[in-house]
Write the structure tokens for this entry.
Amino acid sequence: MAATTDQSALVRAMRYFNKSVRARHLLELKRHATPRKLLNLIIVEFQRRFLRSARMFGYPYWMVIGVTSTCNLMCPGCPKGLRLVDNRRKRVMSHDDFKRVVDQVKPYVFNVAFNAWGEAFLNKHIFDMIETASSNNLGTLVSANLNHLPEGGGERLVKSGLERLVVSVDGATQESYSRYRIRGNLDAVLDNVREIVAAKRRLGSKLPHIAWQFLLFEHNQDEVEMARKMAKEIGFDEIYFMTAGNRFNDERVNNQLRPEVAAKFYTENQAVDPVCARPWYFIEINSDGGVSPCCDIEAYNGSDDFGNILEAPLKKIWNSEIYQESRKLFQVKGYKPKVATVCTDCYRVKEFQTHPQASTAPAYMFAKSILHPIEAILDYRSSRKPTTLH
Ligand SMILES: C[S@@+](CC[C@H](N)C(=O)[O-])C[C@H]1O[C@@H](n2cnc3c(N)ncnc32)[C@H](O)[C@@H]1O
Ligand code: SF4
Ligand code: SF4
């Protein structure tokens, strides 16, 4: 892509990404549904959209897990890359602990994403964990820098039953790639992908679906077309482009991807719903079992955890005072929680306080609940078109 690419092409590309995520969620629902999971989803969505309940009768149906909180790279936009303080008691989750987590969530959860802070492939039990998740009817996604593949390599990965692999490759040359992925080796990453593609062919497997995720910066914008060609040659199933954030204000991130494009995208896609949905449907489990409402916060550190799933039952944590108080922040403007919760200072709560539609909740929620399934089906249909910037 030339530096002169018009803004609407970039916004369209990012919008495509958003739609494809929603389409994938629909597929997960279809693939891993059971009557109990569907009933739970209906309860959760009813309580979230219509009642914004603090006490829940349904449980989270989407899970992100950090099976390790360590990383081999030093990306300057990430707490792991910056080597920020990590107070977690265990930085690598054991397979037994993973099984204990799965046992608790499997009646409700459709999909497990191994993409919390850290590099999942540094946990040598990752393939066993994916197998455990698959055999319990949970969809699986790993997002990785893929500089390292554990013992067993591509063949073991394909045999584990992984459904989706997202490889973070922010550049088509070593020079631009390593500007953000410090310590990363582009050749090693692409060789690992080739190995997985070859194993898929050998074993006659369509899975995992392999996506190249390219974070756009000023320094790699001109490599978009080259990356597309390489993705096709190597055998990726998809390539998509995302804008990068710089939440730690590190000057090396040099996040110059036309802030006005990102702002337009976020206004159109993110801030539409004044209520953050995560405290109702989503759960993040960290390497020591710590529970976080999302990964947008200091979940890498442990200080903001809402409990520990290896020490207390999910059902207790999900309706604990801290969770209930966090949900109440979105019930009425200006609510002062009775206990300290990381959500209080979050930008989503601030948006809610000032959002014009936040005060007309019942009518707004009613209309949205009717329109949402239609939107999701339309999104699914349009996302089947090939990825393109033009
Ligand atoms: C924290 S990483 C953990 C997974 C893995 N280590 C990786 O980098 O792919 C989770 C996701 O955040 C993305 N990411 C990293 N830095 C980012 C940034 N500055 N802005 C937006 N996303 C970022 C990664 O590419 C990855 O898709
Ligand atoms: S590879 Fe992923 S976890 Fe590691 S430093 Fe980079 S963004 Fe963070
Ligand atoms: S309000 Fe903020 S911190 Fe709380 S779950 Fe939502 S995004 Fe995460």
